[in-house]
Structures are given as structure tokens and as C-alpha cells.
Design a protein that fits this description.
Elements lengths: L6 E5 L1 E8 L2 E7 L3 H8 L3 E5 L7 H5 L4 E4 L23 H17 L3 E4 L1 H9 L4 E2 L13 E7 L4 H5 L4 E5 L4 E2 L7 E6 L4 E5 L6 E4 L10 H15 L1
Parallel strand pairs: 1-4, 1-5, 5-6, 6-13
Antiparallel strand pairs: 2-3, 7-10, 8-9, 8-11, 11-12, 12-13
């Protein structure tokens, strides 16, 4: 029986020496909330572990939609800044791979959702910059905080989630200067940009929070619908 669900690629962590059972090995891994959210939203999830950046275009061409997952801080060299002492250690393999994935998705007009770090990378890929530290947007270590976000009327995000809504968040960096063509589509109460997007017709959205840690499917359903429409077209 054919499976007509859109194939959604999700970038992964690359972690050294992960221990499970009797093993301690380097691992490409992903919190289960990401594929579960894709599946609940009507997509077929596939992991895209780091690879050579020159293979990103061929990789993206084989999926119907792309999710760039959360994770460590983006190395400031990518937006022309010196590292703040509070910026985390670089994840250079992930940075190179995921920036290449984003640029390939934009070139091929593949529906794209950036989550937390993924939103920041989307902004950087389009020439934007980041604030390297803000307070009040992360819970205790290993615990997601929650705060309300307000959609910007008329944006794609507002079309998906029109009301002010609480979101699970864990980040200490944020968008500073917006990348080329990006518009803000949601804000936190303190004015922090919490979502960005490119205007239609392309479906490109970044959210600073973690929808995979909530029950609300609407953002991911927007991605899977856009991927399904691309297949039909």
C-alpha cells in the first residue's frame, strides 16, 4: 500500500561518546518529540544527520519539507561577530551542514521550518545577526520554560495561530538584525522576535520556541500541508 504522506527531513545532533546499554559511541541523535510531531501532523519523518555540505542540495531535493532542529549556539563567525563569553562552544559540523541545508531548501523552494537554533540559522543564512545572550527565555537546566507569544497580524504564523499563546522555550540567544527578506511574525512580551518568515509564495517559517514539546500541531501541520501541496503541484 502506497504511503502518500509528505517526507519531512529533520536535521540531527552530532554528539561524541553517547552511552546507551553496553555502548558508548559517537551518535547522530534527535529528541523523539521532533519525529513524533511530524508524524502527528501528517508527515513521514526522516533524520538528516550531518554530511558534507556539498551534498545538501541533493539531500534536500529528495524530501518534501525540511525541519532544522534546535541545539547548540551558532558560531558567531557566521554573522561576523566575536564570541561573547556566555556563548556556548561551537558545533562546526552542524553549522556547516545545516546552513547548507537551509540554503538548498531556499534555492529549491522546499517548505522549511526552523526551530529555535533552526530559526537563528535561517536568519544567519540570509545575512542576519544574533543577540548572543538574553535573560528570561530559558528555564532551569534541562527544563523548558513557558511564556506567551503574540502573532503579527497578516503573517503566515498568525494565519496558523491567530491568538496569543503560551509556548515552551529554552534559549538564551535571539534575532538581532533580520536577514534578507525576513519579516517578524511573533513577539514575546519583552519585544524579542519569536518567529520570522519569508513572504509568500515560499513557505519558510522560523520559531524561537519548541513546538515538539507542546500539544499544538498547527505550526507543523502548516509545514506538512505545504509539503503535500508541493507534491500535488
Amino acid at each position: 500500500m502506497a504511503d502518500d504522506r509528505p517526507l519531512i527531513g529533520i536535521s540531527t545532533y552530532a554528539e561524541p561518546g553517547v552511552r546507551w546499554g553496553a555502548w558508548q559511541l559517537d551518535a547522530a541523535l534527535l529528541p523523539a518529540g521532533y519525529p513524533r510531531l511530524v508524524q502527528r501532523a501528517g508527515g513521514l519523518a526522516v533524520m538528516l544527520p550531518p554530511d558534507a555540505p556539498e551534498r545538501a542540495a541533493a539531500t534536500v531535493a529528495r524530501v518534501d519539507g525540511l525541519v532544522v532542529a534546535g541545539g547548540p549556539d551558532v558560531e558567531p563567525v557566521h554573522y561576523g561577530a566575536e564570541p561573547d563569553p556566555r556563548t556556548g562552544p561551537p558545533a562546526r559540523v552542524r553549522d556547516a551542514w545545516e546552513l547548507a541545508l537551509i540554503r538548498a531548501a531556499l534555492d529549491l523552494r522546499i517548505p522549511l521550518l526552523g526551530i529555535c537554533r533552526g530559526m537563528q540559522l535561517l536568519n544567519v543564512a540570509l545575512g542576519g545577526t544574533l543577540v548572543q545572550h538574553i535573560d528570561g527565555h530559558a528555564g532551569a537546566p534541562g527544563v523548558f520554560g513557558s511564556h506567551p507569544v503574540t502573532p503579527v497580524p497578516g503573517t503566515r504564523y498568525a494565519g496558523l495561530v491567530p491568538e496569543v499563546s503560551p509556548v515552551p522555550a529554552f534559549h538564551h540567544q535571539a534575532v538581532a538584525r533580520l536577514g534578507r527578506g525576513l519579516i517578524p511574525s511573533a513577539h514575546a512580551a519583552d519585544g524579542t522576535v519569536e518567529a520570522v518568515e519569508l513572504p509568500a509564495p515560499d513557505w519558510v517559517l522560523g520559531v524561537q520556541w519548541h513546538p515538539e514539546m507542546a500539544e499544538d500541531l498547527r505550526v507543523m501541520q502548516g509545514l506538512t500541508r505545504a509539503a503535500a501541496h508541493r507534491i500535488a503541484a
